Input
Amino acid sequence: MVEKKDILNLDKFSIKEINDLMNMADSFTEILKRDVKKVPVLRGKTIINLFFEPSTRTKVSFEIAAKRLSADLINFSPNLSSLKKGESEIDTLKTINAMKIDLVIIRHSDSGYINYFAKNIPVPVINAGDGKHEHPTQALLDLYTIYKNFSKLEGLKVAIVGDILNSRVARSDIKLFNKMGLDVKVVAPSMLIPQNFSCFNAKIHSNIEEVISEADVLYMLRMQFERQDKKFYPSTKEYNEFLSLNLSRLNKMKKDSIIMHPGPVNRGIEISDEVMEMQEIVKDKIKINTQVANGVAVRMAVLYYALS
Ligand code: NCD
Output
């Protein structure tokens, strides 16, 4: 039996397979520049977006990606479903599967729960973010954004700043960036670093000033307040002093370096208002909207991979 192509994380993908996905994203980027941004490659396929946690970018991006490949995409709303009548999540998934869908995209707040879902249905499952665990398509679009900017990956210095402990983006990014030969550092105080962090192979700094002038990529993370059952940082003032990106720090960055953030940004915490307001002026440096734009092509590649 051929194994179904789930994408729960990127651990089993070889460097070649990652490069193949990025090349595929490149061809879709070309299609997205056309007047008619649609190709018939997934015509007749039905995809369901199952988001048990809030989302703007990832959910819409998957929807646009599916539609540009001519698939039919259904957005399932847990709050308006029989889950409210007490049906379990796994029974809900099996009910949806009985309607002959071809692929499920899932976001869930419980780390690892999507792996359990994937074992229980016969169609491919794509992880759109599970708890603090993994966010593989975000990691791919981040890698793609870096590659498109620098035309290389090997040896680039990336500093990932902020809430490493609670961030699925940090976990997926660090693993993928290391695999692809980037030099990864993290900047976070000890209370925002997971206990098992030594297995991640990234040097830890506690002050953004230590990396600001040498980083090619400054990757700012959102403080995951919704996952923090206690206060992980004393105050915003303190956060601003050691971890935030403000105008004076922006001016210390290397000439061709870039700033990334997975969104949504907590203005005034990880990035100051003034820097956020400069996005249009310093487009070459602040790549947050480029990440969003690249997300569509990358997710087209992922859907095509999983269904072809
Ligand atoms: C991220 C997520 O939900 O994990 N956002 C996203 O998918 N663009 C990051 C975040 O919410 O901090």
In short: The chain has a mean pLDDT of 95.
